[in-house]
Amino acid sequence: MSVERSLSRRQFLRASAFTTVGLALAACAAPAAPVSAPAATSGEAAPAATAAPVAAEKVTIRFHARIGQQEDTLYDMQMPKFMEENPNIEIVKESFPGAEFNTKMSTMMAGGTLGDVMWSALGGSTIQFAYAQNQVAGISDLVASEGIDLSQWYEGCLNAITLEGNLLGLPFKSHPGLAIVYYNQNILDEAGVAYPTAATTLAEQVEIAKAATKKEGDRITQFGYLPGTDWKSHVTIFRAFGTELINEDGTVFQLNSELGMQAINHLYDFFHTHQVSPTPDQILGSGNEMWISGVLGLVQGGTSTSVTGGAIGDKFKWMVAPNAVGPAGVGGSDFEVDAYCVTTATEHAPEAFKWVQYLCSKDSGIQLGLIGGTVGGRPDVYNAPELLAFPFRQVFKEVMDNAMASRIIANWRQTEAQNTFAQLMQPLWAGEEQPTQEFIDSVTEQVQAIMDLPKP
Predict the structure, then answer these.
(1) Which residues contact 103 (CB under 8 A, 6 or more apart)?
(2) DSSP alpha helices (H): ranges in 192-308?
(3) Are residues 327 and 417 in the same domain?
(4) What is the per-residue pLDDT for 49?
(5) Same domain, 340 and 329
(6) Among 249, 233, 230, which residue's Cα sits nearest to residue 332?
(7) What is the span of the domain harbouring residue 368?
(8) N or C, where is the chain less crowded by C-beta within 10 Å?
(9) Looking at the domain assignment, is residue 3 inside a domain?
(10) Does one domain contain both 322 and 211?
(11) Is 341 domain-assigned?
(12) For the chain, how many structural domains are there in total?
C-alpha cells in the first residue's frame, strides 16, 4: 500500500480556493432569515429585504513545538501578533521536550489527535522520521498556489528538508553546523598570541592552543582548546582534510578512509600528544560550563553557543572565528535546519500554512537572534543590520553564506548511528585506546551495520 506523502486532493482544492493563505471559508449554513422591512407608506415601494451578515468561521490551529527558552520566548511574542492580524485564526501551542518529541508525535498520529503544524529538524533525522511515519505533508502545492518565493530561504536549508522530491516545510532556524571557534581574548592576550581568523590553519591553531594552556606541576589548570568529538564535529574536521564522514548517497561510513584516519589522528593529538584539550575525566561539568568559567582558550561550537555570553558577562572578552582551515582549504561546515511543517492530519491546510510562514518569516528570524542564539534560515535575517550590530554575528553570516551541504545516512537511522559512534569512540578520547587502523576499522564496521539496516 502506498503511503500518502502530501496533502489530500480535498485539502489542496480547498487551499487553492484562497487568494490569500489563511483566509477562512465562510461557514456553510442555511440562508439567514430576512429582516422585516418597515411598512411602506402610501405611494412608496417597499424596500428589499436584506440578509444579516454571516460571521467568518473561526479556525483553531494546533501547533506542536519543541520546548526551548529561545523558541518559547518567540512564540509568546508572535502568537498574539499573528492572531490580531488574523482574527479568524486561533493558535494553540502544545509543547514537548525534544527527547520525547518523536514519541509524542507518533502517539498522537496513532490516536488520531495530531494537530495542524509541527516542529521538525534535520538533526537526528527528525524530519526523516516524521516523513517515514507520514506525519508531515509535502507543501509544494501550497507554495505554488500562493506564489511563495522560496529564494527567501537558504537553498541549502530547503534541500536539507526536501525528501524524495517533497519539500516538507519551511526553514525556521538554521546554522552552519559546528563551524565556529570561540576564543577567550583575555587568555590569548596573556599568552601573547594573535587571535584566530578565517585564514588560521590547523597547524597554527595547534600553536595557539599550546600557548594558551597552563600547568601547575603535572596538573593542567587552563586548556588551550576543546574540539568537538561527536558525529557533527567529525563532519567538519573530515571536510577540512578533504573527505566526508559518509559518502554522497549516505550508504557508506568512511571513518577508516586514509584522509579520515589523518583527521582522527589530528583530533587525538589535541588530547594526548599536545595535551591541550581536556579528556572526558578532566571536563568539569560540561564544555560550555568550562568555557563560561574562563578555563578554555578556545572551544568549538555552533551559533547557539553565543548564548553563553549572558553568563560570561564581564568575566572576560570573547569573539569568534571560523573553524581552522585544513589541507582541503576549508574549515568544514554543514547546513543544519529546524523546520515547521503542515501535518497530514490537518483539515485547515491554508490556515496552517499561513502560521508556518509567519514562524519562518524575516521578522521571526530576526527576533530569534535578538532573543539570543540561532536565527532564522534566511539570507535577509543573517544580513539584518539589527543582528550584524553584534560583531560575532558578522562571522556567523560569512560562514553561513558558504556553508556546505548536509548529509544524512540513507536509512534515516541518524540518531542510532550517532549515539553508537559516540559510545564507541569514547575510549579514544579517554586515552584507553589509540587511533590504530584496527580500532577505527572496528568502529567503522559497527556503525556501518546500523547504516545497512532498513528504514524505520
Answers:
(1) none
(2) 202-212, 231-240, 258-272, 287-293
(3) yes
(4) 44
(5) no
(6) 233
(7) 9-24+56-175+336-401
(8) N
(9) no
(10) yes
(11) yes
(12) 2
With residues binned 3-state (H G I as helix, E B as strand, rest as coil), the percentages for the chain, rounded to 5, are 45, 15, 40
| pTM more than 0.90 | no
- Give the residues across from 226 on adjacent strands: 299
**Cell 525528501 sits on residue:** 163
Joined together, the cell numbers standing for residue 406 give 548536509
User: Do residues 425 and 288 both lie within one domain?
Assistant: yes
Q: Which residues contact 206 (CB under 8 A, 6 or more apart)?
A: 269, 270, 274, 276
Do 394 and 348 have their domain in common? Answer: yes
CATH number of domain containing 196: 3.40.190.10
Low-confidence ranges of the chain (pLDDT < 50): 1-52
Cell of 307: 548564548
d(CA 60, CA 449) in angstroms, rounded, equals 45
Distance CA 201, CA 205 (A): 6
75, 88: one domain: yes
What span, in angstroms and rounded, lies between the C-alpha atoms of 195 and 59? 55
For residue 2, tell me if it sits in a domain. no
For 259, phi and psi rounded to 5 degrees? -70, -30
Spatial distance between the Cα atoms of 104 and 110, rounded to a whole number of angstroms: 10
Whether 260 and 328 have beta carbons less than 8 Å apart is answered as no
In Å, what is the CA distance from 217 to each residue of 104, 211, 283?
52, 16, 19
Measure the N-to-C terminal CA separation of the chain; round to a whole number of Å: 16
Whether residues 160 and 13 fall in one domain: yes
Identify the bridge partners of residue 222 per DSSP, sorted by sequence position. 214
Residue 402 cell numbers, joined: 558558504
Phi, psi (5° rounding) for residue 297? -75, -45
Digit-coded pLDDT (tens) for 236-288: 999 999 999 999 999 999 999 999 999 999 999 999 999 999 999 999 899 99
Same domain, 297 and 342: no
pLDDT of residue 19: 32
Please report the pLDDT score of residue 218 as a whole number. Answer: 86
Q: 3-state DSSP call for residue 441?
A: helix
The closest alpha carbon to 83, from 73, 91, 75, belongs to 91
Do residues 334 and 235 lie in contact, with contact meaning Cβ atoms separated by under 8 Å? yes
